[in-house]
């Protein structure tokens, strides 16, 4: 039996082989650039009209007064837009020019309003889903287009199989659910079996160190009886469920401080059909914590080279429904952060919220392709040629004018 097969099949390791970080490449490689990119998919269709409130539009209060409670007060950003309360902890980044938003944006997806198709189109980066290109993601095609980039340069984080990172270019993955609670005996066995394999031994060492740094290796199982082990695992599961978004942010920051240059993961909870006020507050709080965590953990030097793009599959209806929520819509907003961002502003060709201005008389009208903002970020951050972006990374895209998102 091969050493790797033995390790996968061994029941002495006390971990899930399918989810363990040492079952994927952990060693990192250099890239032909020094900038960093984090892409966050906001699953469920974020309501851009709530997260970045265009209170200066004369029709906004009539459409959304039930959510905002009237005025915006200290939430004001620039005299027209206001920040959702859940994002208020990020105001210092706004003031520093390290937080910004693009409004009235969307993918080319229209009218069907399916989460699955909308997310696939967002991650594929294509005009439609009826082509072979929709089987891979735009970040993976970016990696395929740049010589000298290896799979270890980028990480797809989380248990989801992200279409965004799928394709011919190899990509490393890691999930916060990884269980690496090794007993001392199992850890010794792992080190002994992998000792003579320089590549696998290095990966094992890195995996254990990563798990330790994230607090995933806690109490040795030999110190616990059976009931204590069950109780400890239940506590660990609850902790991971509550803090999974921060584990993703912490891991991404740790890798980006080394040799990784791209990280991607998703945050759920943006589907707000009813009780939107509470639901979007929870989701927005998580997003704010993730961005704040990346800022704090990356440190000034790396943060200054980083751009964070948070994108969603489509927006919500302009009007509230009967359940104090919003239904699937079209135009939404894009959240951007990072020290390399030319932030402190909202990029938008604002369409208006009068009934005649709405898409199909129900949704925020998109005036810019969200892919164009992502493409211009790649152009400015990594120096990717515009022709490559419009034909290979985002086939069929017209990038339009440069919004100057990056310093």
Report on the architecture of this protein.
The protein is of the alpha/beta class. The chain has one domain (3-393): Alkaline Phosphatase, subunit A, CATH 3.40.720. It has 12 helices and 11 strands. Strands 1, 4, 5, 6, 7, 8, 9, 10 and 11 form a 9-stranded mixed sheet that branches. The model is unreliable at 1-30, 218-224 and 229-234 (pLDDT under 50). It comes from Donghicola eburneus.
What does this entry show, briefly?
It contains 12 helices and 11 strands. It is of the alpha/beta class and 407 residues long.
Secondary structure elements and their pairing?
Blueprint: H1 3-9, E1 36-42, H2 48-51, E2 52-53, H3 60-68, E3 82-83, H4 91-96, E4 99-106, H5 115-124, H6 138-145, E5 154-157, E6 172-174, H7 184-194, H8 198-213, H9 226-256, E7 262-267, H10 276-303, E8 306-312, E9 332-337, E10 346-347, E11 368-369, H11 370-382, H12 386-393
Parallel strand pairs: 1-7, 1-8, 4-10, 4-11, 5-6, 5-7
Antiparallel strand pairs: 2-3, 4-9, 8-9
Query: How much β-strand is present in the residues?
Result: 5-15%
User: CATH topology, anyone?
Assistant: Alkaline Phosphatase, subunit A
Characterize the overall form: globular
Compute the number of helices.
12
Low-confidence stretches: 1-30, 218-224, 229-234
Structural class: alpha/beta
Quick one: CATH class?
Alpha Beta
- The tally of domains stands at 1
Distance between the termini: 54 Å
**Secondary-structure element string:** HEHEHEHEHHEEHHHEHEEEEHH
Instruction: Quickly give the CATH architecture.
Output: 3-Layer(aba) Sandwich
Give the tally of β-strands.
Answer: 11
Helical amount: 25-40%
Please state the CA-atom Rg, rounded to the nearest Å: 22 Å
Largest sheet: 9 strands, mixed
What's the overall average pLDDT, rounded? 81
């Amino acid at each position: 039996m091969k050493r790797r097969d033995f390790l996968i099949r061994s029941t002495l390791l006390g971990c899930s082989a399918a989810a363990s970080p040492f079952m994927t490449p952990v060693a990192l490689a250099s890239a032909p650039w020094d900038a960093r990119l984090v892409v966050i998919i906001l699953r469920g269709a974020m309501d851009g009209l709530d997260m970045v409130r265009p209170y200066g539009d004369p029709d906004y209060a009539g459409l959304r007064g039930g959510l905002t409670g009237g005025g915006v007060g200290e939430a004001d950003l620039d005299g027209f837009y206001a920040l959702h309360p859940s994002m208020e902890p990020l105001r210092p980044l706004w003031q520093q020019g390290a937080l910004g938003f693009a409004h009235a944006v969307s993918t080319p997806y229209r009218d069907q309003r399916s989460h699955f198709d909308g997310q696939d189109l967002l991650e594929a980066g294509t005009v439609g889903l009826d082509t072979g290109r929709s089987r891979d993601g735009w970040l993976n095609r970016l990696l395929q287009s740049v010589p000298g980039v290896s799979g270890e340069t980028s990480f797809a984080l989380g248990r989801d199989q992200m279409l965004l990172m799928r394709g011919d270019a190899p990509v490393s993955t890691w999930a916060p659910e990884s269980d690496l609670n090794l007993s001392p005996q199992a850890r010794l066995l792992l080190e002994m079996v992998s000792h003579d394999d320089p590549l696998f031994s290095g990966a094992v060492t890195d995996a254990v160190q990563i798990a330790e740094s994230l607090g995933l290796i806690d109490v040795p199982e030999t110190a616990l009886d059976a009931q204590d082990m069950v109780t400890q695992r239940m506590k660990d599961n609850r902790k991971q469920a509550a803090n999974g978004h921060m584990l993703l942010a912490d891991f991404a920051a740790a890798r980006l401080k080394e040799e990784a240059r791209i990280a991607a993961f998703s945050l759920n909870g943006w589907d707000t059909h009813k009780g939107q006020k509470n639901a979007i507050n929870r989701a927005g709080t998580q997003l704010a914590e993730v961005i704040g965590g990346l800022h704090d953990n990356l440190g000034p030097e790396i943060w200054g080279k980083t751009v964070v793009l948070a994108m969603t599959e489509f927006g919500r209806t302009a009007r509230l429904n009967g359940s104090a929520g919003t239904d699937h819509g079209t135009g939404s907003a894009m959240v951007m952060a990072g020290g390399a961002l030319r932030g402190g502003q909202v990029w938008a060709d604002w369409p208006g919220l009068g009934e005649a201005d709405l898409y199909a008389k129900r949704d925020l009208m998109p005036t810019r392709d969200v892919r164009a903002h992502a493409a211009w970020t790649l152009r400015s951050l990594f120096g990717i040629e515009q022709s490559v972006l419009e034909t290979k990374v985002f086939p069929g895209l017209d990038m339009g004018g440069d919004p100057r998102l990056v310093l």
